[in-house]
Amino acid sequence: MINLGKKVIYQIYPKSFYDSNGDGIGDLRGIIQKIDYIKKLHVDMIWFNPFFVSPQHDNGYDVADYCKIDPRFGSMQDFEELVAKLKEINVGVMLDMVLNHCSTEHKWFKKALAGDPKYRKFFYLRKAKADGSLPTNWRSKFGGPAWAKFGNTDYYYLHLYDPSQADLDWHNPEVRKAVFAVVNFWRNKGVQGFRFDVINVTGKAKKLLDATDPTTEKSLYTDTPVVHQYLKELNAASFGQDPDSITVGEMSSTSIANSIAYSKPDEHELSMVFSFHHLKVDYRDGNKWTKEPVDFMKLKAIFTAWQEKMDQGGGWNALFWNNHDQSVALNRFGDPGKYRLQSAEMLATAIQLMRGTPYIYMGEELGMIDPAYTSIKDYVDVETLNAYHELRKQGLSAAAAFDIIHAKSRDNARTPMHWDSGKYAGFSQVKPWLMPTNQDEINVAAELKHGEIFNYYQKLIKLRKTEELISDGHIKMFLQKDPQVLAYERFLDNKTEKLLVFANFYGQEHTVTLPKQYQEQAGTVLISNYHKKDFTLTAALKLVPYEALAIKI
């Protein structure tokens, strides 16, 4: 059985990694050309965002053909070569399976529109209510109603996301059979890893009901019991047959209890889960499109609950700060100006030494930051543009709406990888689909030559592969009332050694009082972003701005 605690996964957003053919869009051959860089990372697997055939209304998460490579990214031959080249350096491939919904350009939806009764049953088609209103009052996660007119019929189709993304009706066994076949197609291409997009919203009820208020709406289609049944079926029909498979579910608004069940090995569902509660601590009243300071005590409480309870229940967390759907964590939780290096390393230490499997998003290992955009015209993301117009409709000034967008847009993470300090950051010879900024200061060439963040990530990765306390240990949080420091202990059953991790989340010095059991203990420093040497712990431990320290006692 795979030891998930020793694995580290790197995420590549193909559209933004490297453009090999000069069209401004990253592609599979571009990734092949950067194999030497990938080798330097020492990761075990790469999660690739979708590069399937798509009209790109939601950057590839509107899939029109699950088993074909979109020509803008390359060919199946390119993909097969990429898998083979990665295998040579012992790196596996994780593909993004978008199986809750498909593009309205997909043949299934087109056949449904043409009246094919088999494919009409692939989607949630409902007539308007007697009063002419939409089938339910649900809202799309991208803004507006979650229903759109189904061609020239009397029906509407459900889309929890963009209108170009029609939700598939998993109640229909033919749908499940079809999506399981997609997973098996890629397994036969040598793919060992699968990330399942918003998989826990597949369990809508057969009878769809109105929400009584916005807070109850998600519960009508999220984390319902049938999702576990679907995942068990998916496991048995596909990746569960491979002893070396690694799977992760993106779980929207999930609970700890459900996530334990999703990821507990003897449940035979998934290897691990992505949950997002820790990335909503700068939302006002749960609303992403607001500008709020991070609620650090809430962040600590979330980490405490998810880390300790998942451990106690036998579940497994995917550990991450960044991905293609989040603005850069360094901007949100660190100081990208005065303490970019220290806060990047602190954040990496805090998350990567927890219990779970770490994910590193491309550019994170360089300390890349949000782009310095100045206009709404700089953005292309559909969610961002919708949110901007909604904020303006609510009465916010253009400047105030832009300020929020600038802090929270998904495009912040999607800017091209900075390979060098050139005009287009060495990503392309022509103007890219999304412009890079800050590449004069932050880029691969400079980082590998004289930087520190990349090497720091390498130390963290090595520790995970060599220190049993990190890969296999339990976790217990301490200093829970401290307003500035996240601290936890990693420990093994029946062993006396412990690893203590301290992370100062602020730009001010801070002294913590250590619990008595840690005092007067001789410590071996495993990693420190201020190059601390081994020392004996006393009652007081002083941490300088954004200091991270992992010490074995």
Structure commentary:
The protein is of the alpha/beta class. It has 4 domains: 7-98 and 318-371 and 415-466, TIM Barrel (Alpha-Beta Barrel), CATH 3.20.20; 107-167, Alpha-Beta Complex (Oligo-1,6-glucosidase, domain 2), CATH 3.90.400.10; 173-316, Glycosidases (TIM Barrel, Alpha-Beta Barrel); 470-552, Golgi alpha-mannosidase II (Immunoglobulin-like), CATH 2.60.40.1180. Helix content is 30%, strand content 18%. It contains 18 helices and 23 strands. The strands form 6 sheets. The protein has an 8-stranded parallel β-sheet with strand order 13-12-11-5-2-1-15-14. Strand 16 and strand 17 (485-491) form a beta hairpin. Helix 9 crosses helix 10, helix 12 (340-352) runs parallel beside helix 17 (453-466) and helix 13 packs antiparallel against helix 14 (398-408). The chain starts with 8 loop residues before the first strand and ends with a strand. The mean pLDDT is 97.
Mean pLDDT over the residues:
97
CATH superfamily annotation of the largest domain: Glycosidases
**How would you write the strand order of the largest sheet?**
13-12-11-5-2-1-15-14
**Alpha carbon gyration radius:** 23 Å
Beta fraction: 15-25%
CATH class of the largest domain: Alpha Beta
The first-to-last residue Cα distance is 30 Å
Secondary structure blueprint with pairings:
Elements: E1 9-12, H1 28-33, H2 35-41, E2 45-48, E3 52-53, E4 65-69, H3 76-88, E5 92-97, E6 101-103, H4 107-113, H5 117-120, E7 125-127, E8 147-149, E9 155-158, E10 165-167, H6 173-187, E11 193-196, H7 214-217, H8 226-237, E12 246-250, H9 256-263, E13 272-274, H10 296-313, E14 318-319, H11 329-333, H12 340-352, E15 357-361, H13 382-393, H14 398-408, H15 411-414, H16 444-450, H17 453-466, H18 468-472, E16 474-478, E17 485-491, E18 498-504, E19 510-513, E20 522-528, E21 535-536, E22 540-543, E23 548-552
Parallel strand pairs: 1-2, 1-15, 2-5, 5-11, 11-12, 12-13, 14-15
Antiparallel strand pairs: 3-4, 6-10, 7-9, 8-9, 16-17, 17-18, 18-23, 19-22, 20-21, 20-23
Helix pairs in contact: 9-10, 12-17, 13-14
